[in-house]
Amino acid sequence: MAPSESQFLDYHEYQGTNDHSAYLCTPKVIEFLEENNWKEKSKDCKKIVLDNYKRFCDLVGTQPICPISEEFLGQMASIPIRTEKPMELKELLYSKYKIQIPIMPLNDKIYMRYSINVYNSQEDLEVLYRAITDIIESTDLIKVN
Hints:
Number of strands: 3
CATH superfamily: Aspartate Aminotransferase, domain 1
Shape: extended
Distance between the termini: 60 Å
Number of helices: 5
């Protein structure tokens, strides 16, 4: 036990109380996924992501950060976006358009990320597309050129 020869393990290995509920729920989760054809639903979600990724990059005047393929994209996509005010953009998307998505910095760049799950549709991305179009046309928050 502690202290051992590794201070790192002493500080980080002990997890405290182990909650067994996750283990007990796993069979029911697997059953739910199988009964609801989750593999097919996930495939449909991934197709929406793939079908829209380049379209959003074109809208904001940036290039995809990866090949547009199932190998690189799952149920979410990060789109490079040129803005000097990422928090203002995020807040405007939420307050005016009721869209809650991450606008996040990473390695000196800003990314807008959308994700698609079974409760989302192509129409949800159409709403986002129209909102971004409106923001480009009516504000200086997104630099396209």
